[in-house]
């Protein structure tokens, strides 16, 4: 990123036709994005909202669009999803708040269904197109799709049920995983990544402190960077990675057994499997917290150890 000062953020709630811009108000946000087959989530707290605006947000709007970055520099959408809950409260005698909770792709995951038959000779690509069409009816578009097996079925195939179940079966058969980010469905091999150049992280580009090896992966904190995506690559200096200490307690055997498997990458390239953006438009917080694994390493182990599955 060329500039990492003079923060900028926009917050819009909408219903598909009209919207309300809350960007000028004080708000905090916390996003959890994961390389998992479940919706990403967002928690936003907006301070001292008028009663009319609060009522409108509660009763009228159904979509959240949150952008963050820096004035005159990089600013991008870090969350676009469904408004799930609006809750009003008070932090002090003089400060009220409006809590807005959102989920990304939850309508497609929960309600998209398929009901069709394919003739003999159908491929995984054909099956994915059926799934994508069903999810598209709930606002999710198809993005990057990694290599799929080129084999075809000798007989016809009936698809009837939840689109997410067929998508999980397809990914299992192709050693891949899927995730939805900002309404875009991506299918990525377990040891692959999204296309694009790696984002270099160091003290000059916003990295805070030193990367640390844990049983979950390589943990990195940097200034909020909207360009960091789940499944994308970051590049760090391996000499900066702090080795994890062994847990010498009686219950530490499992943790210690995982550490050797969380290895550093020879080329310094790591795939992002967890990204948690947090910020305060009138406070100090403005961070991206990452968990990464060496490019070419399967994702499952790190996500299980973090309790995300």
Description:
The protein is α+β, with helices and mostly antiparallel strands and 309 residues long. The protein has 3 domains: 7-105, Pnp Oxidase, Chain A, CATH 2.30.110; 108-189, Phage tail protein beta-alpha-beta fold (3-Layer(bab) Sandwich), CATH 3.55.50; 199-305, no CATH class. It is built from 6 helices and 18 strands. It has helices spanning 51-59, 106-111, 124-136, 163-173, 253-258, 300-305, and strands spanning 7-14, 19-21, 27-34, 40-47, 63-70, 75-90, 96-104, 113-118, 141-145, 157-162, 176-181, 184-189, 199-200, 207-213, 218-223, 233-235, 269-280, 286-294. Helix 3 runs antiparallel to helix 4. The longest helix is centred in the middle third of the chain and has 13 residues, at 124-136. The protein is globular.
Rg on CA atoms, Å: 21 Å
Query: What's the story with the biggest beta sheet?
Result: 13 strands, mixed
* Count of the separate structural domains: 3
| Low-pLDDT regions | 301-309
Total strands: 18
Query: Helical stretch count?
Result: 6
Global morphology = globular
What distance lies between the first and last C-alpha atoms, to the nearest angstrom? 33 Å
Element order, helices and strands?
Answer: EEEEHEEEHEHEEHEEEEEEHEEH
Proportion of helical residues: 10-25%
Q: Specify the structural class.
A: alpha+beta
Mean pLDDT: 89
Strand content: 35-45%
Write a short abstract of this structure.
17% of the residues lie in helices and 41% in strands.
């Amino acid at each position: 990123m060329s500039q990492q000062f003079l923060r900028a953020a926009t917050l819009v709630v909408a219903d598909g036709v009209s919207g309300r811009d809350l960007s000028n108000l004080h708000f905090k946000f916390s996003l959890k994005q994961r390389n998992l087959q479940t919706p990403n989530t967002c928690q936003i707290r907006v301070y001292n909202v008028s009663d009319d605006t609060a009522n409108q947000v509660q009763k009228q709007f159904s979509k959240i669009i949150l952008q963050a970055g820096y004035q005159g520099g990089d600013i991008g959408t870090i969350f676009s999803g469904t408004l799930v809950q609006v809750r009003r409260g008070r932090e002090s005698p003089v400060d009220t708040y409006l809590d807005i909770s959102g989920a990304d792709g939850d309508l497609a995951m929960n309600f998209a269904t398929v009901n069709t038959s394919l003739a003999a000779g159908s491929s995984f690509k054909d099956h994915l197109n059926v799934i994508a069409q069903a999810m598209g009816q709930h606002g999710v578009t198809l993005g990057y799709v990694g290599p799929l097996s080129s084999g075809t079925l000798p007989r016809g195939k009936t698809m009837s049920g939840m689109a997410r179940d067929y998508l999980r079966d397809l990914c299992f058969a192709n050693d891949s995983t899927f995730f939805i980010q900002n309404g875009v469905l991506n299918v990525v091999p377990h040891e692959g990544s999204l296309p694009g150049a790696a984002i270099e992280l160091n003290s000059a580009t916003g990295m805070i402190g030193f990367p640390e090896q844990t049983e979950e992966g390589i943990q990195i904190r940097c200034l909020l960077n909207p360009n960091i995506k789940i499944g994308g690559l970051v590049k760090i200096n391996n000499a900066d990675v702090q080795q994890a200490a062994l847990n010498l307690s009686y219950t530490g055997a499992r943790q210690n057994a995982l550490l050797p498997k969380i290895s550093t990458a020879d080329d310094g390239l790591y795939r992002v499997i967890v990204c948690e953006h947090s910020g305060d438009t009138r406070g100090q917080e403005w961070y991206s917290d990452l968990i990464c694994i060496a490019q070419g390493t399967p994702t499952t182990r790190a996500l299980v150890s973090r309790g995300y599955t």
